[in-house]
User: What shape does this take?
Amino acid sequence: MEIVKLAIQKSGRLSEKSLQLLSECGIGFENGERRLVARAHNFPVELLFLRDDDIPQYVSDGVADAGIVGENIIAEKEYPVPVMEKLGFARCRLSLAVPKSVSYSGTEWLQGKRIATSYPGILKRFLTEKNLEADIHEISGSVEIAPGIGLADAIFDIVSSGSTLISNGLKEVETIMHSQAVLIKNAHLSQEKNQILDRMLFRIRAVQKAKSNKYILLNAPNESIPEITRLIPGMKSPTVIPLAMEGWSSLHSVVNENDFWEVIGKLKELGAQGILVIPIEKMIV
Ligand code: ATP
Ligand code: MG
Assistant: This one.
């Protein structure tokens, strides 16, 4: 029986969420000292704990079979690793920022400037696409202080809330890419390893789907049932149970988080009362 070697970040912004996702998929690891490798006790997968920068390389070389890493890291060196699924966490963007005082007119402002970044590959491709030339200073951390100490005119770095930029007197002027954690795999896996990964992916999707949906229960006058059914069809159609009170029913369904507040508003207009919304743990369609 083969075992899939899954690379995850040893310690950093991806680590906890990666382990949490596996645990929500019912894949259990021994707690305790975090070692270099850990074997799941109920699924044919073994974890390799690595620096996030090393994960795409290990996966494309086949040292690991699959991995969880930010899209930014894959894009930087354009590793040939198929993305199996976007995982929805560690969301950030990669942006150009300049000192607040600069009157930035558009990308042509960047021509001939010095730009500090940890992502020279992505930046270079962007500049080439825009027919611009700039002096790229590659630095590995604390990029946001570069303009303040006179090392650069602009920076290209990861932004999530933007507060780091503001506290360093910078403003975001161009967003070049959006990133989130993804599940990647080696392009030449055995059929057996692919099957194991597909089983894992099935569970990941059930967890993701559950997170983006809510179970909804409400009471409504019977004459509103057809319209409410159109509004919250759920997985097939809502469950309708008569209430003891004449002319009223209880409806149970599933609603997507993105439509949630709009749907609630319409339900109230249709006379719905006593609306309960409950998280779903797993959802298999
Ligand atoms: P390592 O020691 O493993 O190399 P690191 O310091 O390079 O870690 P982290 O800061 O832990 O990396 O970030 C890991 C990934 O999380 C990044 O590559 C990016 O995809 C994402 N990320 C980084 N900063 C943020 C942020 N502020 N908000 C959300 N996601 C982020
Ligand atoms: Mg790193």
